[in-house]
Amino acid sequence: MTKSIRANEVERDWVVIDATDKVFGRMITEVATLLRGKHKPTYTPNVDCGDYVIIINASKARYTGLNKGSDKLYHRHSGYFGSVKSEKFEDLLKNNPVKLYKLAVRGMLPKTKLGREMIKKLKVYEGSEHPHTAQVNKGK
């Protein structure tokens, strides 16, 4: 019989991923898997059993696709008529790579309360420094 894990029984680790020279899309799928907890044998779909993920050197990742920078658009809408705003991939990468990572990962998580809790465990930093050293060292 398969045992379902409860929310208070979950053991969370801290995972640090260095984005330097990694392909963006492949890395994002790995991050989504870690946040959901699908890499653990105790995975339960209705419980947030994922780990905390820290991405460092976010601006140094590799991006594939010939014209992705100029062709790919990210849209947002306030709900009012005519209020759709679009931003190009290259502009978002240059101005706010943290938002780019959060948007990409959020698209791979459940669109429920559970998914909103999972995305809070993602920490993205442009440089190689992050303030979570105490948690990372404790987990290893």
Describe this entry's structure for a reader.
The protein is an alpha/beta fold. The chain has one domain: Ribosomal protein L13 (Ribosomal Protein L13p, Chain: A). The strands form two sheets. A three-stranded parallel beta sheet has the order 1-2-5. A hairpin with a 6-residue loop joins strand 3 and strand 4. The radius of gyration is 17 Å and the shape is globular. The two termini are 31 Å apart.
Question: What is this entry, summarized?
Answer:
The protein has 140 residues and is α/β, with parallel strands linked by helices. It has helices at residues 24-36, 68-71, 89-95, 97-106, 113-119, 133-139; strands spanning 14-18, 52-56, 73-77, 84-88, 122-124.
